[in-house]
Amino acid sequence: MRYQFDFGALLPYWRDFLDGALTTLTMTAFAVVFGLAIGILCAIGRRSASPLLQRLCGFYVELIRNTPYIIQIFFIFFGLSSIGLRLPIFAAAVLTLVVNVGAYTAEIVRAGMDTIHPGQIEAAQALGLSQPQIYWDVILRPALERVYPALTGQFVLMMLASSITSQISAEELTAVANNVQSFSFRAFETYIVVAVLYLALAVLLKLAFYGFGQLIFPRRRRLGTPL
Amino acid sequence: MAAAVSLRDVHKRFGEVEVLKGVSFEVAPGEVVAIIGRSGSGKSTALRCVNRLETIQSGEIELCGRRVDDPALDLRALRRDVGMVFQSYNLFPHLTVAENITLAPRRVRRTPPAEARRIAEEVLTRVGLSDKIDAYPEQLSGGQQQRVAIARSLAMEPKVMLFDEVTSALDPHLTGEVLKVMETLAKGGMTMLVVTHEMAFARRVADRVIFMHTGKVWETGPGSMLADPQTPELKEFLANGL
Ligand SMILES: Nc1ncnc2c1ncn2[C@@H]1O[C@H](COP(=O)(O)OP(=O)(O)O)[C@@H](O)[C@H]1O
Ligand SMILES: [Mg+2]
After folding, report:
1. Which residues belong to any copy of the ABC transporter domain (chain B) (predicted)?
2. Which CATH number fits domain A25-169: 1.10.3720.10, 1.20.120.1760, 3.40.50.280, 3.30.230.10?
3. Best residue for ligand 1 mutational test, from B13, B38, B41, B45 (most atoms within 8 Å of Cβ)
4. Helix, strand, coil in percent for chain A, rounding step 5
5. Residue A172 three-state SS
6. Ligand 1 neighbourhood includes B40 CB (under 6 angstroms)
7. Whose CA is nearest to atom 13 of ligand 1?
């Protein structure tokens, strides 16, 4: 029972690994930007005065958070093509990620907005700020600062979950690994390499989020304490 | 001269509960009026109706010639004329003192950043806190935070200022510094409507005192009325405090 490791057999595929990792990162970047936008809009919708909007946003969040991601992928992918909409694989994969992470983001952002004391909003109203200005300056900014660790943690999880989009043949890191191991017959080594690459991506992402947080939250940078 | 603030037969209900039962009073320009009364008598509600944080069911409210109870009221214009300071300071915790003060001028009046900064320096000098301009609220004492809140309101150059028990959350040894700032404002000619439990302040600084009881203006008169209450309710209130 001795296994002879042969990582050399994987060397010819280094470009494929790199491309896969870059695709994973690109998908993640798109999903973070659009998922955050949807999450914020949805969190605002759940606080809106319109019961219809509240219920619509609530339904979306609960639906996504209570079904498996892989089912969501198939639902969106085959659902779209059966109504005649053909998206490129990459776009379809990003779409499933956005729909998925948007719901989790909405819930995190909502929790953050719930921590804003009503007195804050009244003070802003008394100063003459408009509703959109209050949402941006007095509710969203401190709410996002408060939930930033939870939010970025969710984005890292999403990056890892993006490996599931290999199921619809998105050419990301996991799909690359599946191909490489079938050509090289070195499955064990391939998945070790891929695990290390995912780990590296996760660390990279965490560092990037940390740096970005220092940039956009000056209070945190200067005081170093949670808000 | 027309009143800066006037309430005429104002009725306000929260659901079934009537909290203001026909409140009428006026504040002349430059006048300082203190509102006193037991907790729950409707003092905060009366104040919050003046800048329309609450809407009323009937009656009329006017502020600087503007009908506050008009549904078509320009809220932004109203709130440029009237500032408010709260019991719980309500500074924005993620912003520095300067940013707290300049937020409204920059957003509402589109004041350029350099000019807004100059305004912040000026109002902070007036409350004696120019050295705290770049601090964050959590780095300040309660009294300092409340003075910043006053400065933040002043930066919008309001014609009328509303104060709702602004020293009630403070340790006794910190109330003095806030009251002193308010007294200076009053001497400078600011029109002020002040809900307070500080009887000494009401007697010394207010031109007129309004005693509210069960949602009504119960008794009103100059500061000296506190030494000579006419109604048994005010007598009892003054004897037992809050
Ligand atoms: N938003 C609200 N909803 C329901 N009842 C309220 C609300 N605000 C105040 N009240 C009630 O109105 C009454 C007067 O309150 P308030 O004006 O805060 O009194 P005061 O400031 O004199 O202590 C109290 O009985 C209080 O419980
Ligand atoms: Mg009150």
Report:
1. 5-239
2. 1.10.3720.10
3. B45
4. 85, 0, 15
5. coil
6. yes
7. B40
Domain ranges of chain A: 25-169
What domains appear along chain B, each with residue ranges and CATH number?
Answer: 5-241 (3.40.50.300)
Tokens of B150: 């006053």
Closest-approach residue (CA) in chain A for B110: A129
Minimal Cα–Cα distance from B179 to chain A, Å?
A: 20
d(Cα A10, Cα A196) in Å, to the nearest integer? Answer: 14
Nearest by CB to residue A128, choosing from B91, B92, B156, is B156
Contact B107 A119 (CB under 8 A): no
Mind spelling out the 3-state secondary structure of chain B? CCCCEEEEEEEEEECCEEEEEEEEEEECCCCEEEEEECCCCCHHHHHHHHCCCCCCCEEEEEECCEECCCCCCCHHHHHHHEEEECCCCCCCCCCCHHHHHHHHHHHHCCCCHHHHHHHHHHHHHHCCCHHHCCCCHHHCCHHHHHHHHHHHHHCCCCCEEEEECCCCCCCHHHHHHHHHHHHHHHHCCCEEEEECCCHHHHHHHCCEEEEEECCEEEEEECHHHHCCCCCHHHHHHHHHCC
**ipTM greater than 0.90, yes or no?**
yes
Using a CB–CB cutoff of 8 Å, tell me whether A217 touches chain B: yes
- pLDDT tens per residue, range B156-188: 999 999 999 999 999 999 999 999 999 999 999
| C-alpha to C-alpha distance for B171 and B45, rounded to whole angstroms | 25
Each residue's pLDDT expressed in tens, for chain A with a length of 227 residues: 688 999 999 999 999 999 999 999 999 999 999 999 999 999 999 999 999 999 999 999 999 999 999 999 999 999 998 999 988 999 999 999 999 999 999 999 999 999 999 999 999 999 999 999 999 999 999 999 999 999 999 999 999 999 999 999 999 999 999 999 999 999 999 999 999 999 999 999 999 999 999 999 999 999 999 99
Percentage of chain B lying above the pLDDT 90 cut: 97
The encoded tokens of residue B211 equal: 């005693």
Q: What pTM does this model have?
A: 0.93
